[in-house]
Amino acid sequence: MRRITDELGLAGGRVTLLYVGKADDIPIVEKPRDHRWTWTTIVKEGDVVEAIVQSAAETGAGLVVMTTNGRNGFLDALRGSHSERVLSKIPCPLLNLPVGSFLG
Fold first, then answer.
1. Domain 4-98 belongs to what topology?
2. pLDDT, average across residues 31-48
3. What's 59's DSSP letter?
């Protein structure tokens, strides 16, 4: 099975998984077993957008990847979605993946 990292030609790197919420609620994430990649998990509470922006700055992120299920109602139409607000505040690219998508 080919991985997305192979298809993109990535030789290795560092991945920081950020979960914003209570530590007891963090989902289980199956991390690829590849010695070329370093995986770190961070759990923060508070505002989702600010936690992502702050973590991107702290880790020197070169790319932020977020899941999205699209706009959610009237408030998103007024203030923008989480993704739109993160994108306007981070100095690196943002990749949005639909909830439930799979990068194999």
1. Rossmann fold (3.40.50)
2. 90
3. H
